[in-house]
Fold:
Amino acid sequence: MASQKRDYYEVLGIAKGASAEDIKKAYRKMAIQYHPDKNPGDKASEEKFKEVSEAYEVLSDTAKRQQYDQFGHAAFGAGRGGGGGGSYGGFGGGGIDLEEALRTFMGASGGGGSIFENFFGGGGRAQNPNAPQEGADLRFDLEIDFEEAVLGSSREIRINVNETCDRCKGGGAEPGSGRKTCSDCRGAGQVVSGGGFIQFRQTCPTCRGTGQVIEKPCTVCRGQGLVRNKRTIDVKIPGGVETGSRLRIAGKGEGGLRGGPSGDLYIVLHVREHEFFKRNDLDIVCEVPVPFHIAALGGEVHVPTIHGRAELKIPAGTENGKVFRMKGKGITSPRYGTGDQHIVVQIEIPQGLGGKEKKKMQEAAEMLDEKNFPLTQKMNKAAEKFYEHKRALEKEQ
Structure:
């Protein structure tokens, strides 16, 4: 009787307001769990599978679901859910086929073959293993000096690389011979083990998935299609590169197989730090010592730049740490233009003074007073303000 049937939403373990996608997910999970092929001889699982499929047939159909929500099982007549009984492959007029349902869920419709083969590693379209194969890309890490990075240079590098065998042209077979169908996989490239619901497929160990074996291996590369050689490559390093920059040299990677092109070589640059110049994008930053008398009286100093020496005017009263910008004295990039150089002043105090020099400096110092040292005045005022506040707090205690 209809009253003995379980609620379809309860059967699939979902709420009454579940979306169509939730219904599909619930059905797929339970259908795989209770499918008779996965539970041979288990009558309880077979009945459960029928119940799940019947519920899905109704709830996945918009019109039937509306009727069921309004009238329950009575909407389809006594003793019927979405359709009549029968084998687990289908229910009612439309029928429910597990493979077709899963094919729809997993985007495999029209792909050919069993959905279970596709799901568990078989089926589907595979790339032709005997087609020309492009060689692998290679990476080479190159350490360069700071000057090379900012100005550009040329380098010669030597690398060991697998190149396409000249004798067999990457095919692996001795000239005049060829390939034949693998006897172990009969040209399929895979061998199958197991049976029933679950089958295991793996690459054929004899032909390595190509479906063919070489009749007579090449005497130079021994059937590999590649030979190991040392290669010398000229590298042009453009100005403006930095650590992490990559230079691509097309066709200088590993050789291809069966007529395929060679891969590319990627050179990753690592720039050594300079003891004086520091880089900030396209700008150069450096600390320049300025004699104390020039900082006090003003004058000019010679400043090194990556383009050569330049003159920098220092105004009188320049303080330690003052930064000056020298426009256009930075790194030049073909794409982004030229940066600037930033000079950080380091006031240099003379060392190793003799008696005469010390006397002269003492005489000059005696001619100065507090107004000549504004930073000292500023500090003393701040300190005195602090001590006044301190004394006031102590009186309140």
Remarks:
- The two ends are 94 Å apart (CA to CA).
- The domain at 2-119 is CATH 1.10.287.110 (Helix Hairpins).
- DSSP finds ten helices and 17 strands in the chain.
